Amino acid sequence: MKKLTSTLLLTSILAVAANTASADTLSSVKSKGFVQCGVSTGLPGFSNADASGNWKGLDVDVCRAVAAAALGDAGKVKYTPLTAKERFTALQSGEIDMLSRNTTWTLTRDGSLGLNFAGVNYYDGQGFMVTKGLGVKSALELDGAAVCIQAGTTTELNLADYFRENGMKYKSVTYDTSDATIKGFEAGRCDMLSSDQSQLYALRIKLKNPGAAIVLPEVISKEPLGPVVRQGDDKWFNIVKWSLMAMVNAEELGVTSKNASSMKSTKNPSIGRLMGGQGEKLGLGDGWAYNIVSQVGNYGESFERNVGMSSPLKISRGLNALWSKGGLQYAPPIR
Amino acid sequence: MSDHDSDLKPSKPAIWNDPKYRALFFQIILVIGLGYFIVSIVDNTLSNMESRGISTGFAFLNEPSGFGILQSLIEFDESHTYGRTFFVGLLNTLLISGLGIFFATFLGFIMGVARLSNNWIVAKVATVYIEIFRNIPLLLQIFFWYFAVLASLPGVRQSMSLGAGIEFNNRGLYVPSPVPEDGFSIVFWLFVIGIIATVFLARWANKRQELTGQQFPVFFSSLGLIFGLPLVVFLMMGSPLSWDYPALKGFNFQGGVSIIPELLALLLALTIYTGTFIAETVRAGINAVSHGQTEAAMALGLTRGKTMRLIIIPQAMRVIIPPLTSQYLNLAKNSSLATAIGYPDIVAVFMGTTLNQTGQAVEITMMTMGVYLTISLTISMFMNWFNKRMALVER
């Protein structure tokens, strides 16, 4: 018995020691054969599993783009649904390779959580949703209201700031998941629901009667949402960052999933660099960006398909249009 | 002679064959191994977190939290520190555990005795209650009560008035809160003195009964001491107490004391669920007392009530208390399911929001585990003390 204990002890010590050595996410992804991607527990348009269990959404497309770049197949992704509370711990502990879960980029998160934000795939801002019956036109009329929010988000902090700034009082009812939050709102536990505006639209279609709720015009915060990786693995950080950049650059250059193969033989040098050549600088194969665009599509396609006018959410491009079209989406050049 | 004796003694074994030293040797090895294991885990964690740029230490406890909490027993707003969120959560956990233990014990004892009742209906009602609620997972029951409570109650504008200024709606139960005026403190202190006096009275009455066999009506005199006297003084002073009634102002009821639906639902679920286990424990305890005891008590002319109170229950308690302790521990730990419906207990507030805003998972998780360990050990210690008191005193 004692012998067994000491053997066990020794092996576990060795296991702990061995565990600390591996920090190279790309090789571990390659040897596993898939990317383990942290997503939300269900947010239509961003990351949501459909009836047959396939994950779809703007955030999911980032995971797929990374898989296409790293493994050559956008389908080689395994998804881990995470609540807002669980997400950073899951990434820090190595349970997931990357997090793409409508996560706001802030200084605290970047600086003290051991994480790196790899860009912004959606520029958002926090807003309020109320029932029409309340007769409220502006968030400034909401003094003393009860607010349903999701735990572990920047929402909680912005809300407190906004109400303090305007000298108003509120009661926050904090739920674990977005599903519970919308249920609480629907049951009348709160006067309003506060979250990122994109989420408000996504959650509204989960209501039994979506027409009964309106989103107020106020946007009270900046919420740049983007994919996140662990600190200390710059190679993987670059891959995730440039997978997203490739999608934005592709839109800018007019390369879509449909014309990608014909664009391969183009004379345009910018498109040429996107379609092949720069891979080894990232530690990837030559066709990394071609794989992304042909299998996932460019940023604009992904936006339209998941949250844009051809989706139930019908969100306009707004801040998320390309910089050349009056928005903020701007990717450094591939060269 | 002595030479012979020493020949017969077994020769002393080599030190590595001596079982005593062997045992000691392996124990030392085990302790060293374990120590190394712990040290290397801590060291590894710290150096890994350092290399990944994750902050460590407890400095975050002094930073302002910047978020609001739904229910707080102490003063709290966004400008208070993360350290204070710990105490807010802790007090909310203690509140729900304390209330839950009280009501579950009450319900459990009634149902446990009822299940043994000779009355067919009473016994069956208790059986059905126990068998249904014992066999449904607690989390489902919490969801059921929460959404049932929320869904069935009227909205805040159609609030149900239960009389005496009590309002009930899907934002909670609103009760008028007493506002003491000048002189009310006299009434309050009389009440406290009444309680203390009752304790001494009970002791004196006990002693007298043991010496002389004469009984003293302790129950009624203590009622008079605790409630009667303060009430008379209260009325004589012209009722120095006013009430703050809850009233609908803006979006919600203001004033009075509000009991949030999250607390109600959680309390209901914990009470009903744990009550079933306590009921079975009580039934087991009562069944463990031999029937001869009842017959003997009856033969001495004790009434049924007195038989139960003075003969059966004291003996049953010895069987009941140890498993009852486990149920109390379960209830305290199960209260952490609060996070599912948004009741701000320590797991929801401190391990939820605070952890997420600061990202210091290791420190916060350890603090929270420490809290549950402390609560559980305190309950255990108290129940062990109580058990010793109730145990059979052998003379």
Q: The biggest beta sheet of chain B, please?
A: 4 strands, antiparallel
The pLDDT mean of chain A sits at 87
The unreliable regions of chain A are 7-22
What fraction of the residues of chain B are assigned to beta strands by DSSP?
Answer: 5-15%
Gyration radius of chain A (Cα, Å) is 22 Å
CATH architecture annotation of the largest domain in chain A: 3-Layer(aba) Sandwich
Total DSSP helices of chain B: 12
CATH 2nd-level architecture of the domain at 85-157 and 260-390 in chain B: Orthogonal Bundle
Shape of chain B: globular
Could you tell me how far the N terminus lies from the C terminus of chain A, measured between alpha carbons in angstroms? 63 Å
* Low-confidence residue ranges of chain B: none
CATH superfamily of the largest domain in chain A: Periplasmic binding protein-like II
Oligomer: heterodimer
State the CATH superfamily name of the domain at 85-157 and 260-390 in chain B: MetI-like
CATH fold annotation of the largest domain in chain A: D-Maltodextrin-Binding Protein, domain 2
CATH class of the domain at 85-157 and 260-390 in chain B: Mainly Alpha
The strand line-up of the biggest sheet of chain B is 1-2-3-8
Gap between N and C termini of chain B: 51 Å
Summed up, the helix count of chain A is: 14
Question: What's the helix and strand layout?
Answer:
The complex is a heterodimer of chains A (335) and B (395).
Chain A lengths: L1 H20 L3 H8 L2 E5 L8 E2 L5 E2 L1 H14 L5 E5 L5 H6 L5 E7 L2 H6 L2 E3 L4 E3 L1 E6 L13 E6 L3 H12 L4 E6 L2 H9 L5 E5 H8 L8 E3 L7 E8 L3 H20 L6 H4 L5 H7 L3 H4 L5 H8 L3 H8 L29
Parallel strand pairs in A: 1-4, 1-5, 9-10, 9-11
Antiparallel strand pairs in A: 2-3, 5-13, 6-13, 7-13, 8-11, 8-12
Chain B lengths: L1 H7 L10 H33 L30 H34 L4 H15 L3 H15 L7 E2 L5 E3 L2 E4 L1 E4 L3 H29 L5 H19 L4 E4 L2 E3 L2 E3 L2 E3 L1 H28 L2 H9 L4 H31 L11 H13 L2 H30 L5
Helix pairs in contact in B: 3-4, 3-8, 3-10, 3-11, 4-8, 5-8, 6-7, 8-10, 9-10, 10-12, 11-12
